[in-house]
Amino acid sequence: MSDYTGSVELRKVVPDDLEILYRIQTDPKANDLAKVYAREQSDFYAHWTKILESPEVIMRAIAYDGQTVGNINSFPIEGKTYVGYWIERAFWGKGIATRAVQMLLKIDTTRPMYAIVATKNIGSCLVLEKNGFVKIGESDSPGTDRFAPCREAHYRLSSIEKPS
Ligand SMILES: CC(C)(COP(=O)(O)OP(=O)(O)OC[C@H]1O[C@@H](n2cnc3c(N)ncnc32)[C@H](O)[C@@H]1OP(=O)(O)O)[C@@H](O)C(=O)NCCC(=O)NCCS
Questions:
Q1: pLDDT tens digit string along 135-160?
Q2: Closest CA to 116 of 163, 60, 156
Q3: From the CB of 147, is ligand 1 less than 6 Å away?
Q4: CATH of the domain at 83
Q5: Is the C-beta atom of 18 inside 6 A of ligand 1?
């Protein structure tokens, strides 16, 4: 990995984080990269209230030099555990997501762990691969009310795969 400076830590989400996290999930460039449709404000707060109360979701704010710049979580879908993350655009390319995933994998030791990423989201693919996730396939997603149609890559981290 590049020699990134700046400290990265994961911390529990506090109410003051939500305004920041709402704002960064409205970024059109980030949404285009992730192939996601932003949530309207009321949907956003309803969703976050639900996930912060869920015992099945591990959610953390990502702090860079003490400032909240994103979020990372693990969550179950149909019996599998997935990881997801989001970084404010002004802080892209500083190794923050790579380090945040590394830290989450110590908090949530569920293996295998999975991730689904738009194949064009090269940065996100690299974040996963740097943390030992292996691409296990691709599929065409028709899209939903939350996700745009795209070609997506499926990743898995099994207990025997080590970060590169
Ligand atoms: C994808 C995302 C999480 C990457 O976060 P980040 O903190 O910039 O990632 P990192 O700095 O850890 O980058 C990991 C590697 O990918 C590279 N990279 C990052 N963005 C890239 C891009 N757009 N194109 C090519 N490479 C990229 C970095 O250079 C780094 O490689 P290096 O360590 O060899 O230099 C961030 O762009 C983001 O939040 N996007 C919007 C939401 C999203 O896509 N979430 C993931 C959905 S699956």
A1: 999 999 999 999 999 999 999 999 86
A2: 156
A3: no
A4: 3.40.630.30
A5: no
